[in-house]
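Lecture notes, continued. The same structure-token format from the folding unit now serves as the input rather than the output. Read the line below as a description of shape only.
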């Protein structure tokens, strides 16, 4: 009698298990049939990406924005430009006193990894990396217009020329924030052409990943060399009078570039050295960094 009871219990357990399995597979199959699948993805004229599903619903695709490492730059007054005694000084580096409010600047030049996210989100074409690699290398082949669009997308802006030089100097008054010389162990530039007849260095012939060299005293990397950096200002003559938070001329033909690059001689990397180009120009030695309004 006990054996029969155990047999019956075993059969009931087996039946329950089979029934449960059948229900589970049926539920999974039904769930799979009712879940909507992606039919199409496309962009609207305003750049937004839309995903359409098999059940007739749609939603806007959300793109991740890059994380920026910020450095707080203190308010202060400094002498912008270079003294007449500075080797390789140019005429457009007239010294004048500038007072600036505090601001935040990106510790690094904007990278391909960061800029590519912007391109994915807005449908822009990704700039060429010249075969040197993307990722943590500074983005290149971007115009002033491109850089400004990225900055606005991030809720930021490009630095003014005065902010850039103030941040680059980080309290120094010498040709470079490293002193009276800049070596290729301190920055990426054309090492066959050192500053003021100093010893030659390495010519790497391309960009290096951001942060490959020691930062300046305020924690900013690659302020000398690697890539030129777009500033917000139109290029023009300096005012000789003291100024507070200057923004440059109200109009012009060229936008300011600062910092020198991997292809330039050392003197182009001086803190006071000014470069410029048209807003639509793109080059393999031009990139940018950001300033936060917060």
């Amino acid at each position: 009698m006990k054996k029969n009871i155990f047999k019956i219990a075993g059969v009931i357990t087996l039946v329950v298990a089979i029934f449960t399995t059948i229900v589970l597979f049926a539920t999974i199959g039904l769930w799979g049939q009712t879940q909507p699948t992606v039919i199409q993805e496309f962009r609207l004229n305003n750049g937004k990406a839309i995903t359409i599903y098999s059940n007739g619903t749609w939603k806007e695709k959300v793109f991740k924005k890059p994380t920026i490492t910020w450095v707080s730059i203190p308010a202060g007054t400094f002498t912008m430009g270079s003294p007449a005694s500075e080797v390789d000084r140019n005429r457009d580096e007239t010294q004048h006193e500038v007072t600036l409010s505090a601001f935040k600047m990106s510790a690094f030049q904007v990278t391909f990894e960061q800029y590519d996210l912007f391109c994915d989100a807005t449908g822009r074409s990704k700039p060429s990396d010249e075969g040197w690699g993307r990722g943590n290398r500074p983005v290149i082949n971007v115009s002033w217009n491109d850089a400004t669009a990225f900055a606005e997308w991030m809720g930021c802006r490009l630095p003014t020329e005065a902010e850039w030089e103030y941040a680059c100097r980080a309290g120094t008054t010498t040709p470079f924030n490293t002193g009276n010389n800049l070596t290729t162990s301190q920055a990426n530039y054309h090492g066959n052409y050192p500053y003021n007849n100093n010893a030659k260095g390495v010519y790497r012939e391309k960009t290096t990943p951001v942060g490959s060299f020691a930062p300046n005293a305020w924690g900013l990397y690659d302020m000398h060399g690697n890539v030129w950096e777009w500033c917000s200002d139109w290029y023009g003559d300096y005012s000789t009078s003291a100024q507070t938070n200057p923004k440059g001329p109200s109009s012009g033909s060229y936008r300011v570039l600062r910092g020198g690059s991997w292809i330039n001689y050392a003197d182009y990397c001086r803190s006071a050295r000014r470069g410029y180009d048209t807003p639509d120009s793109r080059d393999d030695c031009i990139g940018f960094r950001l300033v936060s309004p917060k």
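Point for the exam: The first helix runs from residue 2 to 34.
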